[in-house]
Amino acid sequence: MRGDALDTPVPVVDLDRADRNLVTMQAYCDRHGLALRPHVKTHKLPQLALRQIELGAAGVTCQKIGEALVMAEAGCGDILLTYPVVGASKVPPLAALARKTRLTVALDNPVALDTVAAAAHEAGVEIGVLVEFESGEGRLGVQTPQDALELARRAHGNGPLAFRGLMTFPRGPQTAPFLAAARPLFEREGIPIATVSVGGTPGCWSTHELPGVTELRVGTYVYHDRATVAAGAATLDDCALHVVATVVSRPTPERAVLDCGSKTLSSDRVAPVAGEGFGLILDYPDAVIARLNEEHGVVDLSRCVRRPEIGERVRIVPNHVCAVSNLHDAVVVCRGGEVVGTWPVAARGCTR
Amino acid sequence: MRGDALDTPVPVVDLDRADRNLVTMQAYCDRHGLALRPHVKTHKLPQLALRQIELGAAGVTCQKIGEALVMAEAGCGDILLTYPVVGASKVPPLAALARKTRLTVALDNPVALDTVAAAAHEAGVEIGVLVEFESGEGRLGVQTPQDALELARRAHGNGPLAFRGLMTFPRGPQTAPFLAAARPLFEREGIPIATVSVGGTPGCWSTHELPGVTELRVGTYVYHDRATVAAGAATLDDCALHVVATVVSRPTPERAVLDCGSKTLSSDRVAPVAGEGFGLILDYPDAVIARLNEEHGVVDLSRCVRRPEIGERVRIVPNHVCAVSNLHDAVVVCRGGEVVGTWPVAARGCTR
Q: Which CATH superfamily is domain B32-222 in?
């Protein structure tokens, strides 16, 4: 898909590749007896969420209530919200969500637990709880198995709440030691850990090596990007979303300017080992998108023998495809190399 | 505006401060006989564009055709598009735009010129042309006065095109030498340079020192941000857009997690001299937003004596406010410290 007939810049999704990615991951999880719970934050498209469920996913993962409401409206019947919802403003939308779908919320503190309990009371339905533990990332999560147990206890006997297990993101080096230390504590209290959920596309293919894990959460795998390719989780041929851009200027022999800046590609970087710049230009792999302004991609062509002309279309594999999806109101979708439609990114911008 | 009653994360605009910023800049331009042509890319709000015009702006600047169409529909009668539109897909929307407003397009190459000419023909109306020259930024722009003259010649006698002058962004050290060299060339050909337009909020207050400049284009000045404060163009008290966020976790004594990540704040950095991290937490200036994931802001509290509790609201001055506007479908607006409404960011996501 060169997209010569498309107005640019535009994100173009190869649905054949995306579907292959979905099928491959479901097969991996099936083979190893893992529940797959895809994270919709990458595509934010009900169409792909429903396809993931159709292929065998146990449900979907959402990061924010707004995102989850879009997916519940679209028919996703089982949603895990992997975000500690905190405060009175979250109660009404969380209650509305719980009335629409089987809901589980991950959290790591009692204030979030109280918020979820208030929503469950308001909705009059059960809401499940996973306790998030830290396994090495330094983001969210209780720090000790004892702290996990404290929260699980509060969820276990708390009216319409149901403790459903443990989760972490990403699966860090402390995952196995934490689980090994937590299990006897929970057993002694008679609190079952039904689910152990881990996440992250970069290390996804070794999830089965970790004993006791029951569920895999992955998002980026639907499209892949420069970061997951660099992590060895995919190849460039698996990348299913390209940004098609136009060369709008060639101010000097060594410089091109593309009509895609940080408002199209995001400013997300990749680790130096994954490559230079703000995306990989497939058609000119020696070019470097050296700098982004809001609407400009400034490209260093000094290492390119062949160089693009003004007006030429190029295809870019983004550094971080989840950020790209979220910048665009719609994606163009293709099958068999032909454009077959435009899909609104229905859950775009759902930061709340 | 602590925004305790608001659902978070949310961008909150202090309209009193924004208006003060607009008035101050208009007064500066009036004092020095400069035309002010505010760039809408920062706020993307018709309400503020019309206020800018009401205060005396000569018209507005837009970066993309989509943005300009929103502003033209809203009643902006004079628009400068500072982007080289290239290719057949741009002709119909550019023609539509030219039928709605007095239009000028900046460009630096003949392919863009041909695109603009085709649109002018299709629309049956005149479209003005500014030739963009490079003054030190290394982005767009012709490299020599002779190249500028070549393009001006092609615009000058080209059917419904009208050469209207020169522009550069940002105003770099080569601005004065370039203009000094260009003027005699243009005079010899009898091609008047009616407009000399320069841009950029960081250096805006010294625009009058540059001889021959007729017009100032600034965008960020409406809200200001950490970058323009660091550049000395404003103070923190001028910052008119804050992101209100909630502390959703305190995993360790030295760490807080906010509900605002790169999908709320963008991943844009500032120069080290402007400060650390991904935004300034006004309520905890010693805290560092050390890392962003898509929906998480991971805050290092190690230098803070006082530390926030879970559930607490904080106000953040973004690194780059233009990127923040563009991530959100709407902004909450305040006057006198009270919320007075929610405005859709009407030109959000207009990358084409």
A: Alanine racemase (3.20.20.10)
